[in-house]
Amino acid sequence: MRILRTGRRRREGGVVLILVLVVVLVLSAVLIEFNYETTLDLGAAAGATAGRQALACADAGIQVALAALRNADHVFRDDTLRPIVTGDARLDVGEGHCRIFVSAENGRLNINALKPRGGQPDRRRCEQLLRLIDLLNVQPGAEEPISYAIVPAMIDWADEDDDTTVLSYVEGENEGAEQGWYETRKPVRRCKNAPFDTVAETALLRGMTPLALDGRPGDREGKRPALLGLRPFLTVWGDGKVDINHAPAPVLQSLSEKLDAALARDIVAQRGERPFESVNELLAVPGMTRELFSAIRDYVTVSPNDRYYRVEAVGSVREVERRVVAVIRVDTAESAPTLIQRMEF
């Protein structure tokens, strides 16, 4: 009988041991899970804090750009300021730093100027945008051509009526899109019928593709060349005239079918030595004829009524980055910069 009782106690002791082990394992699992969640919460909190600090760094960069643009005519010429506005300088802000990139909006094509409010499409400006599309479509490796339909689609998006625009002088895809077309999309979209607030809105247009808007990077092996999209050459600000002191070469070349790549490069090279003080100085650029100058004179400028600048500031704190993109207007008469648009990413 003692043997039986001893065996029973041993069995009971074994059961207790097993239960204790189970409880220990369960508690261990709970503690591990609690520790994991706590670590995640702390990491999330730290990440959120770093994100707020990075955003503050980016906003500090915008303020630096505002101060620099008080002398807008000289901001791109001053060797001291150039590293600040081109992103080549790292500005330390508290625990982080920021980089600033500034570009002149007046050197781009204003898509809000394709059709005056209450008027008819401006054929001259539409043809300029069509020529820019042609230039991008002949890039090496451009297998998916940008559609001409983007141009009338831009007009229909920005104008106030519901009449679909057809550019009769364009062969092929020459029809825009109004609300009836956007209602067939998934998800359903709304045709804005008001001016563009940002170039990013063009992503919603009939005919626009991610490749057409943003291009693509090339690969390291060089088998797939990089392609430029439309975005770097478009704006929604300004009076529609192209500032020849800031326009990229493709925008200059799009001014006329008679303005070739070589002449565009020469204009860029000459303004690099000394900015143009008058549009008449274009006549001194080798290759510029009086006929060509007369054709483009009313569509270019060196002194816009208001100057518009796009400022991108990237703040970084503990490997967390935040980006702020702002548009700054500088009144030409007063040289007073004003922040008119701000977007954070």
Pick out its properties:
345 residues; alpha/beta; 9 helices
- Alpha-beta content class: alpha/beta
Query: N-to-C SSE series?
Result: HHEEEHHHHEEHHHEEEE
What's the total count of β strands? 9
The coarse overall form would be globular
Cα Rg: 30 Å
Report strand order across the widest sheet: 1-2-7-8-9
Question: Approximately what portion of the residues adopt beta-strand conformation?
Answer: 15-25%
Q: What does the average pLDDT come to?
A: 86
Please give the share of residues in helix.
25-40%
Low-confidence stretches: 1-13, 19-42
Total helical elements? 9
Give the termini separation: 80 Å
Major β-sheet, in short? 5 strands, antiparallel
Structure overview:
Strands 1-2-7-8-9 form a 5-stranded antiparallel β-sheet. It has a two-stranded parallel sheet with strand order 3-4. It contains 9 helices and 9 strands. The chain starts with a helix and ends with a strand. It is an alpha/beta fold. The longest helix is centred in the first third of the chain and has 67 residues, at 2-68. 32% of the residues are buried. Residues 1-13 and 19-42 have low confidence and may be disordered. 38% of the residues lie in helices and 15% in strands. It has a domain at 244-298.
